[in-house]
Amino acid sequence: MKRTITLFALTFIAGSLCAQNIDLPAPSKSGGMPLMEALAKRSTARAFDSKALSRQQLSSLLWASFGISRPDGKRTAPSAKNFQETDIYVLLKEGAYVYDAKSNKLNLVAAEDVRSLGGTQAFVKDAPVTLVFVADLTRMWTGSIDDKKNFANIDVGYISQNAYLFCASEGLVTGARASVDRSSLAAKLKLRPDQLIILAQSVGYPKP
Length: 208
Fold this sequence. Notes:
This protein is α+β, with helices and mostly antiparallel strands. Helix content is 33%, strand content 21%.
């Protein structure tokens, strides 16, 4: 019995040590496919290889999607009244994280694999990365609730398209969806009631 408890404790500690904040390398802001070619190749995938993305790819993907692109703190995607209400949560095999654009790092939210909650289709568990776009309505200081939700939906559309174009340029595949297990995923991500899951988007390599 004592041996069983000790093994369980060691396994738990090892898992906790593996899941931690991730400092990302600087994103690559040069090169890539010409815009018109990326637009022509942009498509939605529903099958993903399980091969993991490198930290460099992940950093560049997140920066392209909604990173800080100017000294004044403005981003690679527009937002209504510059609310910047969207957070990108990143679901990986080793855990769930939230992207900190200012520090270029991933802050751990849940030390478990919750990728299967990022959609209702079977393929979501295979994608190495799922981005979850979450709108924090408390950052939107004016407008009705309906207005805020409308702005949030539009803003996430810009961010999602950035991710699509990055993937087209980098030879990756991606697919956005609104069908998400919102209540279960929100609980795992420790979201408040005024943080709304707008969209999820899986990213990975094409399945052979």
